[in-house]
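This section describes the prediction task in plain terms. A model, or a person checking by hand, is given the sequence of a single protein chain and must write out its three-dimensional structure as a string of tokens. No templates, partner chains or ligands are provided. The sample shown here is typical of the held-out split.
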Amino acid sequence: MKANIQHFDAIVIGAGFSGLYMLHRLREDGISARVFEAGEGVGGTWFWNRYPGARCDSESIYYNYTFSEELYKEWTWTSRYPEQPEILSYLNFVADKFNLRKDIQFNTRVQSAHYDPENNLWNIKLENNTNVTAKYFITGVGCLSAANVPDFKGIESFKGEWYHTGHWPRDKEVDLKGKRVGIIGTGSSGVQAIPVIAQQAVHLTVFQRTPQYSAPARNHPYDLEYIRNTKANFKEIKKQMRESTGGQPTEVPTQSALEVNHLERTQKYEDIWKNGGLGLFGAFTDLTLNEKANETVAEFIRSKISEIVHDSKVAKKLMPYYYYGTKRPIIDTNYYETYNRDNVTLIDVKSDPIESITPAGLKTKDNEYELDVIIFATGYDGMTGPLMKIDIKGKDGVTLKEKWAGGAQTRTYLGIANAGFPNMFMITGPESPSVLSNMPVSIEQHVEWIADCIQFLRQKDIDVIEANIEAENAWSQHCREVAEATLFTKTESWYTGANIKGKPRGFQIYLGGVGAYRKKCDEIASSGYEGFVLTSTAVH
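The expected answer:
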């Protein structure tokens, strides 16, 4: 090993929820570690996503770390669904409390990570052409960090300003007052941004490809008594989150939507709608399993759109007809109401497709729109995208992108490890519950499993751990079977890669639930890491 190359026990990519906790655990366990972060500060997705209206869609009292009761009780959220600045403040608070910044190298993007089988090391090359080595290579890059900016013809000719919601400027305030703004995309970020932008712009034109099911968030400030009770019940809340299906202590449904009459079912939906949040998703046992059950909630939301939006033609354009819940469930603040404003126009780009960006704005097949600002709310290359942007090469010279066939045959073991990539761990990788769970809960579970695994290896003098190919294939097959039993695979979404041109389709999330997944991972660890090949390469 060259003397000028720094060596660490572990290298972690990313300083969001995953990287911060991973670093803390490694340091607590006496393992030397360095985190590399492309941004100028901590926060991960909450560092980059600063678009108007950006906020969390998990309730704040559950959207935080639970590894430390002291930390949980020291921090107080202001409201049910916190905005981006508050979440970023929380993550900075965590970094300060545990003195994490000293082991994070900011403004540093990892270019490649190649495994050296002779020395059992990962060689990490940074974009500034420096190199480091590590025994363990851990990715905390997030599931939604590779922004998808469509390659529209003529985008370079646009005379105005354009932005992507996932890469909103950090060094200047984007002033939309008096501007003619066009926003392309009505996924989660678009639904959050549109009501806020409509209040600022002189005119907002929304270019919608697929209408979305959205329910009201009903955000509200927390009162002190509620906060006191929450903190007093920390242990029980933590237990419930970790044993739940989605990582939040929500009521588990016991009835099919088809077992109750129309009046009773509608009243349940009305109560959930009035309370706000993501409760519709779990109102009945079979909403994502049975087409007829799914149609009951889909029709309920369409009826709400019809009630809220005054113009019946606009309301009709906003009505979705895919299976509810099989795209990311969305909650909003005055999203549908925004289309009652005189300064908002909705364009259906399925019937009138976008042809090009022009110097003055945007051209569809039938019309031209003069715009001062264009905002791309076009989402991300989810799940595999962030990992495949890095040149990750395993023991046989095969890259992760090649192994996964560009996304066509994504295979992992538990969403944590890959056959052919020794001593590499992924935090909330493909084929784990990840984005269909409350992310901090899944992140903590992965970080703790990885940290415990490394401790086991060190105690047993085991140098190399690698997923067994048969175990990996069996897990991937299980993930596919679980998904195929649902309606999720019958809808094109970013879950399946359908939002990325040329990306092979595949469902890359484990749908068995957080609690069941945790139990499986714990069983594997307690068995001495069944499904992994463990090797000692040196004489100790």
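For orientation: The mean pLDDT is 94.
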